[in-house]
Structures are given as structure tokens and as C-alpha cells.
Design a protein that fits this description.
By secondary structure, the chain is mainly beta. The chain contains 5 helices and 44 strands. A hairpin with a 7-residue loop joins strand 39 (676-683) and strand 40. The N and C termini lie far apart (69 Å).
């Protein structure tokens, strides 16, 4: 048995610079009070789930498939003798009370009788409907007809519960999408939640239109990984790129489809509300976060909706306040962590889910511990975690049976958690949550750091989480997002500022002063001609002003006039550098890289590192074939620069170099140590290279290594070449493979003016 480490704890480690304060779980350890081991029982000694076996397997309809109308459900449950099936159903339409006739009113008045009792109202939450009660055949086979038109439209779960003559039992959750049925409890409610009283809607997504998701959130609403690093699912969080997309859309629902194809590690999905540059959706107190979803309870499933404080995400390390923010720690508020699966070593959580507030890398609040240092009860103590029993609240249905709404209110004084509008936990607001913006995440993890076993074989190694909507409210105007393109130099940098608080005027400064409503109002892109700090603040009506956004505009890095060219293949999404992406080696690292398709013959219209036009033209000749390098050793912009390759014996003709003297840097593509060759530079028209180097390519653990060996010498491991002091206006750079069959080629080159 393992102690369950705080389930989403790792998520905060990179975002805040925090590391686990706890030791890894050890066999035989008892459950933690924050994350109880549901299957251990209250004593920690009486395992739950020992009566559960996996006997039920549905053969029709297919798991996670679509149905409509009367649908025959066929299943096998060897060893079981009886089975029942249930599905959550919408409330019946209210029937009007028939009017009481005149004669009946007279008789009642004369007899002194009471008015008739109105019929009982159906629960607005709906109810659990029995759809089958079967005696199974000797071989355990059974079937029943499910009247789908009588049940909710959209995602539904049919629960089949089978038993034998003794104690053995099984529960199988059959997830389906009902194309027909009754439209009920779907889409964003028209009314604001009571918990958000006095706040204004900051953000809402009902997933009724095309999804807006990309690997890092660029040009999209959501990143498909945990911003700040630390993806934690056993089936890896994947994104729409690369053909491994776990996200889908139907009706008003987002589908996160977890699946594991043979020979893979499995995939699933997470959405973050901010990007690596800090832009996106976040809110400072008072604020309210809400999500409605349903997921499957099966061994390994781990749906969650939670928040983190922003910390240093998007901050410049050179900013004066960077270190103070880094040292402040991180608040992680787990609005819901649900654990699926029945049987030995599974959670057996039933309708329970966990709420936990974590205060990472910071002194714990005075009210955090139940006892003081002297061992006596702490009079200030407030619980910061809870196990919520959904079967005792609202419609009395589990998180896997039907959609539920999970909410979090953060004020300057209190942090309050809600389930279907009911308060389920309250404690004082942590110091970091009071001062930093909070952002949200929603995910469908499968196994991973939760420690639960994964066993989805009978479900075809697939499972769905369906998210109906997410919305965020705030009593403060959202902090603006500042984005720059280019660098001030030959032409100005362009700065755009936006704010998700609709209609909020944005005011800005470029002289490092604090923006006020008397500062210039943002009307459109700003041209910045010199290095400075842009500050912006938004002022929404009837809202507190936003926090101040800061964005440092730097002079163009690298050597002024440098021309950087990087080659990209058809898979260019992870190879193309944006204008502000800095890449290169040492002091020659620059922005404004010019992307050139590895399949073209000629290219021109280049710009320099400081944005000036360049007369240089490029022709690709020789045995030049596009190839995509392996992502080993390098990361970030370095990897983007090295992913696109020209192999195996390309010849690059560069004309119109305007500098009397210059260096040429040739960067070899990402790959493995598996090829030897030579790279030479010659004035165009000359058969004799002016310089040449031999190489034995090696990624060298992600470190840059310059070639030093000449042709004929034993080559050394290296991954880039520098030709110094070239003077010809037209040159040819040629690569030759000499031994081995490798993955490396020419991925980029720079022309750097020298005095």
C-alpha cells in the first residue's frame, strides 16, 4: 500500500520553483489526511474492494460510441447470476394541477375541508433511473433495451452492476453519446452563480464552437500542456499537433478522449488557461472559477479542475521583483480531484472526491495545522481539505454518473469551494492567493503521480471526460496582455495590448512610470523605437483597476546586421521561430530568423537581426533533401532551430553579401552521433575552398561544440562550424557525408558582419 502523495502537487513544482517537501511514499505507509486512501477504510487496515472483480464486458454498443433511439445493450458477465443497470435521467416535465371545479369547491367549503395537496415536485437535479433488472444465463450473458430517447441528450453513462450468489460483484460504466434524447442541463446557464454575486464575467467557454488549442497556446485559447512544465499523467498529455489529438467537440461539450493504442504509452489531455509568456486568463481576488463536467470511474481515471497562482510565469528574470515573486511560493487549489475504479488496489471512492489547498514553498498559514508546536489544539485551525460525498448532496449522484458543477471563490479574506452551488469547504485565503493572479487547469489524467493502477483493458483502453463549460468571474479588471513583435532597431518594434475584460479602457506608459487613467489610452499597435519597459493597466467599469502588466522591450540581440536563416520542413510547426524568439550560439544568438522551406530552390527578401532588409539571395543545390531531426539533447528555441535539416550533401549558394568582412556560422541539425563528413566554404566560381572543417556529429548532451579539425584529420564530436573572415560577396557552402548514415544536415546558418 502506498501513501497517495498530493495528487497535483508536482504541477506546482516547476511553476513556483518548489520541490516536494515530502519523502516518496513507502510500502505500508498510512494514508495522508489530505488525500485519504479510500480503499484502506477508515482504520487503514480493512481493505475495501476485495469483493470486486472485473466480470462485465459490453460487446454492444461499443464503448465511447454514439447511439440514438432504442439501443440493445449486450454484455457478458461470467460467474455472475444477476445484473441491474442504471442511468441518470432528467426530471419529468412538470404537470399542471388541474383546476378545481365549482361544485368541488362548494362541497369543500361546506365541509370545512382543506385545499387539495399539490403533487410532489420532481427533483430539479434529475434522478437515478433503473433501466434493467436481469437474471443472467448460466454463461453470464445478458442484454436489455435502453430507451435513449427518454434520457439526456449528449454524454451519458449506463452503469451495469452484476453480482453472484456470494459476495462477488462488479460495476461497469458504459460511456455513450446520445445523439437523440432530451436537451437538459447543458450549456452555460443564463443566470450567474450566486457565489459570484458582485463579480463580473471575465471569461466563459461553452465549447459550442471550434476548439482553440495548440501545444503552447500560441495563436489559440489554451495550451495543451501544463504551463510552466510538469505534465503528470501516466498516459501522456498530448496536443493537436502530430496526429495524437485527444480533444474533440460535440454539441456544447469538449471531449477529452483518453486512449492507448497498442505499442504506445497512451494519451490524454489537459488545458491550461495561461501561456508561457503569462498571457491568457487569470484573475486576482475577488474572483470565482467554475466548471461542469462528467468523467468515467475506472481504474486509473483521474479527472480534475484546479488552480495555481501565476508566480514567475511570463516574468523577465531581469525584473527587480522577479526574485521576490519566486521566493513567495505557490498556492495550488484543487477544486476537485476524482479517483476512479473499484476493486483491490483501486480507490473505491464511490461518489467521493477530494478538495485540497496547498501552500507550496512558503511558511504555512497560522490556521493550517490542527495542533501548535506545543502539541495543543490550535485555536486558529481551519481545515484546508475535504472529502466531498456527492451522494449526500444535491441530486445525490456521483461525479461519474452525470454532470456536476465545481466552483471556487477566492476573496481577500476567504477561499470557498462549491459543489453544485452548495458550499463544501471554507478557509482563510492564503497570502500568495491574495496578491498573485490565479489561473485554472482542467485535465483527464490516467494514472501517473496519483499512484493508482491503470486497468482500462475491458473498456478497449479508452475513456472520456466531457466538459460542458468553464467560466471565470472577477471583481477586478483583468490584467492586460502585452505582446511585442520585433526589436527596436532598423525599424520599430510593434507592441499590442489587450484585455479580456470587455470594454475596459487600457492606459499605458513607456517611461517606467505607473499607468493611471490620465496616461495615454491604448488605441492600437504602438511603435517602439528604443529599449524601454511598457506598463499597462486596465480600468473596467464598476471594477477595481487591474494589476499593472509589464513588458520589457530590449534592443535587438546579437550582432547588428546579422542574417539568420533556418531551414524548415513540411512539419514546420515546431521549427519556425517567431520574430522575438532568440536562438543561436553565445553572443551571436539573435531574433528575426528567416525561415526557408527545405524544399525550395531559391529564397530572398531576408531581414537582418535588427529588422533591416537585406539584399542577400539563397539557392539550394546538390543532394539537398529535407529531413526532420530527432528531439534529443536540445530544447526550446535551440531545438526549433535544429529540427529542420538539409541532408545529405547540400550545396548552398549565397549571393549579394553586403559586408566587406564577415563570419559564417553553419549549425548542424538535431540528430544522433552517427555520421562523419566535411563542411567547406568557397568563393563562388572557385574550385578551391577558402576554409573547411571535418566533423563527427554528436549532440554532446545538448551542448554546443564547434568544429576544430580540418579535412584529413581525425574528426571530433561537434555540432556547428565557424568560418571566420570571409570577404567574397558570393559564396558556396557545401556539406559532404563521408561515413555512416545519419540524421544530421545543415539546419541553419548565419552571416555575421565583422570589422
Amino acid at each position: 500500500m502506498k501513501t497517495r502523495l498530493p495528487g497535483l502537487a508536482l504541477a506546482c513544482a516547476l511553476a513556483s520553483g518548489a520541490l516536494f517537501a515530502q519523502e516518496p511514499a513507502k510500502p505500508g505507509a498510512t494514508a495522508t489526511p489530505e488525500y485519504p486512501d479510500f480503499y484502506t477504510g477508515e482504520s487503514g487496515k480493512a481493505p475495501k474492494g476485495i469483493d470486486f472483480v472485473q466480470a462485465i464486458k459490453v460487446s454492444a454498443p461499443a464503448y465511447c460510441s454514439e447511439i440514438q433511439g432504442d439501443t440493445t445493450v449486450t454484455f457478458q458477465a461470467p460467474g455472475m447470476t444477476q445484473a441491474k443497470a442504471f442511468c441518470w435521467q432528467q426530471p419529468p416535465p412538470a404537470k399542471p394541477t388541474p383546476p378545481e371545479g365549482l361544485w368541488r369547491r362548494v362541497k369543500r367549503a361546506l365541509s370545512g375541508g382543506e385545499p387539495p395537496t399539490p403533487p410532489a415536485k420532481p427533483s430539479p437535479w434529475g434522478h437515478d433511473a433503473a433501466v434493467a433488472d436481469l437474471k443472467l444465463a448460466a454463461d453470464g450473458n445478458g442484454s436489455f433495451v435502453f430507451p435513449a430517447d427518454q434520457f439526456p441528450n449528449g454524454p451519458i453513462t449506463i452503469r451495469i452492476h452484476a453480482k453472484d450468489e456470494g459476495k462477488k460483484q462488479d460495476i461497469c460504466e458504459l460511456q455513450l453519446f446520445n445523439r437523440g434524447g432530451v436537451a437538459w442541463n447543458q450549456g452555460i446557464p443564463k443566470a450567474d452563480p450566486p457565489a459570484a454575486k458582485g463579480l463580473k464575467l471575465l471569461f466563459a467557454d461553452d465549447f459550442a464552437g471550434p476548439l482553440s488549442i495548440s501545444p503552447d497556446g500560441k495563436n489559440a485559447r489554451y495550451p495543451a500542456h501544463k504551463t510552466g512544465g510538469g505534465d503528470f499523467s501516466g498516459w501522456i498529455f498530448s496536443d493537436p499537433a502530430g496526429g495524437n489529438d485527444p480533444f474533440g467537440q460535440a454539441g456544447t461539450w469538449l471531449r477529452i478522449h483518453a486512449s492507448k493504442k497498442p505499442g504506445t504509452k497512451g494519451r490524454s489531455g489537459i488545458l491550461s488557461s495561461i501561456r508561457g509568456d503569462g498571457s491568457g486568463v487569470s484573475a486576482t481576488p475577488p474572483c470565482y472559477f467554475e466548471c461542469r463536467f462528467v468523467a468515467q470511474s475506472a481504474p486509473g481515471t483521474w479527472p480534475a479542475f484546479w488552480t495555481l497562482t501565476k508566480g514567475t510565469i511570463g516574468m523577465d528574470k531581469a525584473a527587480p521583483e522577479y526574485e521576490a515573486v519566486k521566493k513567495a511560493g505557490c498556492d495550488e487549489l484543487d477544486i476537485i480531484e476524482a479517483y476512479g475504479g473499484y476493486g483491490p488496489k483501486n480507490p473505491n471512492s464511490g461518489g467521493n472526491y477530494c478538495i485540497v489547498s496547498h501552500f507550496w514553498s512558503q511558511p504555512k498559514p497560522a490556521w493550517h495545522e490542527p495542533k501548535g508546536a506545543d502539541g495543543k489544539p490550535n485555536p486558529l485551525y481551519k481545515p484546508h481539505s475535504a472529502v466531498v460525498d456527492t451522494l449526500a448532496l444535491g441530486g445525490k449522484s456521483s461525479w461519474s454518473w452525470t454532470f456536476h458543477t465545481y466552483g471556487l471563490l477566492i476573496t481577500e479574506t476567504d477561499t470557498v469551494y462549491y459543489f453544485d452551488g452548495s458550499e463544501v469547504l471554507r478557509h482563510p485565503t492564503g497570502p500568495v492567493s491574495k496578491t498573485q493572479p490565479t489561473w485554472f487547469l482542467v485535465n483527464y489524467a490516467i494514472g501517473g503521480i496519483s499512484g493508482w493502477q491503470i486497468d482500462l483493458e475491458r473498456y478497449g483502453n479508452q475513456s472520456d471526460m466531457w466538459v460542458d463549460y468553464i467560466r471565470v468571474y472577477s471583481g477586478r479588471t483583468q490584467m492586460p496582455d502585452i505582446v511585442s513583435s520585433g526589436f527596436p532597431g532598423a525599424k520599430p518594434a510593434a507592441v499590442t495590448i489587450s484585455c479580456v475584460t470587455e470594454g475596459a479602457p487600457i492606459h499605458y506608459t513607456t517611461d517606467d512610470s505607473e499607468p493611471t487613467e490620465n496616461s495615454p489610452r491604448y488605441q492600437g499597435p504602438i511603435a517602439i523605437s528604443k529599449a524601454c519597459t511598457v506598463k499597462a493597466k486596465a480600468f473596467g467599469k464598476d471594477l477595481k483597476p487591474s494589476s499593472t502588466a509589464k513588458h520589457i522591450i530590449t534592443a535587438a540581440p546579437g550582432v547588428a546586421g546579422s542574417i539568420g536563416i533556418n531551414f524548415v520542413t513540411a512539419e514546420g510547426a515546431d521549427q519556425t521561430l517567431a520574430a522575438n524568439d532568440i536562438a543561436g550560439i553565445g553572443p551571436e544568438a539573435q531574433g528575426n530568423w528567416n525561415a526557408v522551406s527545405a524544399e525550395v530552390k531559391t529564397a530572398s527578401g531576408f531581414i537582418t537581426s535588427d529588422g533591416a532588409p537585406s539584399p542577400v539571395t539563397l539557392s539550394i543545390e546538390g543532394e539537398a533533401k529535407p529531413a526532420t531531426g530527432e528531439p534529443w539533447g536540445f530544447g526550446g528555441n535551440d531545438l526549433k532551430l535544429k529540427r529542420g535539416n538539409l541532408v545529405s550533401n547540400p550545396r548552398l549558394v549565397i549571393k549579394g553579401i553586403p559586408y566587406a568582412k564577415y563570419d559564417v556560422i553553419v549549425i548542424l541539425g538535431a540528430g544522433i552521433h552517427n555520421v562523419q563528413g566535411e563542411v567547406s566554404l568557397a568563393p563562388l566560381g572557385s574550385d578551391t575552398p577558402s576554409d573547411a572543417f571535418s566533423f563527427d556529429y554528436g549532440w554532446n548532451g545538448g551542448k554546443h561544440a564547434v568544429a576544430t579539425t580540418k579535412p584529413g584529420e581525425t574528426p571530433k564530436n561537434m555540432n556547428y562550424i565557424v568560418f571566420k573572415g570571409a570577404t567574397a560577396p558570393d559564396i558556396a557552402v557545401t556539406m559532404k557525408w563521408l561515413a555512416g548514415k545519419g540524421w544530421t544536415g545543415i539546419s541553419a546558418l548565419q552571416i555575421i558582419p565583422r570589422q
